[in-house]
Amino acid sequence: MPDIMLDLARLREAHTGIAASINEFKDASDINDKLEEAIARPDDRSELRGKASDFESAWDGKRDALQENLQNILDQLTAILDGWEKWDTGTASNIESGGTETTGQSGPR
User: Fold this and answer.
1) Domain locations in the chain?
2) Quick one: the chain helix, strand, coil %, rounded to 5?
């Protein structure tokens, strides 16, 4: 069976980044509302504010789909990290206790 090499630090870094991105997507609507308030109606004109609103409306459905995809990736990445750490801890404990029994795997499946 081939060896499996995982860079857990990079996987944790990716996990943190994806989680932060999901939070940003969740907050995007509120941020846009604040942007529209900040734009107001300069010179009694609402075109710029309307463009900001149009952009947010057009992006809303795409943002929801992207957020859902990111959540799915985050869930899978969490499962990989948790499964690997559980296997690694169990294997290390078995080795430290002098046991020779292993799962016969190079990592969790």
Assistant:
1) 9-88
2) 80, 0, 20
